[in-house]
Amino acid sequence: MKTLSQKGSLLVMVSVFLAIMTLFTVAVGRMVGSRLDFMSRMEDRIELLLIAEAGVRKAGHLLKKKAGRKAGPQSWSLNQSWSRNARAFGKVEVGPRGFFSVRRLKDPSKKDVGRGRYVYGLVDEESKINLNVTQSEAVLTDLFRSAAGLTREDAQALAAALLDWIDPDEDPRDIGAESREYEGLKEPYPPKNGPLGALEELLALKGMTPEIFEKIRPYVTLDGSGKVNLNTAPALVLQALGLDGSLVVKIAAYRAGRDGREGTNDDGTFENPGAWVQTLVEAGYLAPAEAQALGPVEAPLDIGSTHFSVESLARLKNRRQVLKVRAVVNQTGEIKRWQEEYLQGSFSRGSF
Question: At the topology level of CATH, where does 51-126+304-343 sit?
Fold first, then answer.
C-alpha cells in the first residue's frame, strides 16, 4: 500500500509531466502557426508576382499590336494608347483576389505627389539619353546639371567619371576617374571599363550620390536605338542634346496642340525625322527665316521608339503588401529587363 509521501511524489511527477506537455503543445502550436503564416505570405508573394507579370505581359501585347499595324517606320507619340490608357492599365482585376496598375510619372521634373502625379501608361526609352551610346561629355554635363541641379563643374566631373567608367582604357580625363581614384577608397573597387549593365551601376561613380541618381534616373536609359524620339522626349533631354531653348519651347507647343496639353487627341506629331523643322514651319510654329538660321541640327533625333519601361504594381484585396515590378519591354513584347520590389503600406487611388 502506497504511503502518503509516495502519493505526493507521484502527483508532483504527473504535474511536471503535464507542464512539460503543455509547453510542448504551445511550442508546436507556435511553430505550426509560424510555418502556416510563412506559407501564407509566400503564397501571397507568388500570387502578387503573377499579377504584376500580367501587367507587364499586357503592356507587351499592346506594344506588339501597335507595331504590327504598319510596315516600316512609324511615329510613336504621347497621345497613343501605350502612353496614356486608364482602361488598359488602371487597376485591372486579375482573378478574384487581386489587381494591377501600370503607371508612369506624369512629369518627372515636378515634385507634386498624390493623385495628379501619375498617369496609367508606359514610358518609351527613346525619350531618354542612352548612356551606353552617347560619347559626348557636353551632352552628359548639360543633362546632369539640369536634371540634378548641379553646378557646371560638378556636372562635368560626373560626366567625365561616367565616360571613364565605360571606356576600355585606364587614362582618366582631366577631371575624370580611373582605377587610381577608386583604389584610394575605404572599400576599393576597379571601374568597369565597359558598357553599363544596369542603371544602378551609376551609384559606383565618383561623385554620384543616391539623391543625384534618383533625379537623373527618369532621363537616362541603357536600352533602345540611341536616338531620341522628338515626339516624346522632355524639354530637358532635347536641350541637353544641344537644341536651343526657344526651339524646344516651339517643339513642345506643336506637340501639345491647341489645348496646350500633351497626350490628347489634338497633339501635333512629327512623322518624318528628316523634315521636323519644315513641319514646324508648315504648322506655323517656326518662321521660315528662323528655320534658315538654324542650320544643320546634329542631334540624334528620330520619331519612333523601340523599348519601353513598364512599372507594374500588383496588390491583393484586403492586403497591405504591394509588389512593384520595373521591366523594359521591346515593341515585339519581349521582356529585356526585370526588377522586383516588395512594398508595405497604403497607396492612394491616385498613386496606385
Answer: Pantoate--beta-alanine Ligase; Chain: A,domain 2 (3.30.1300)
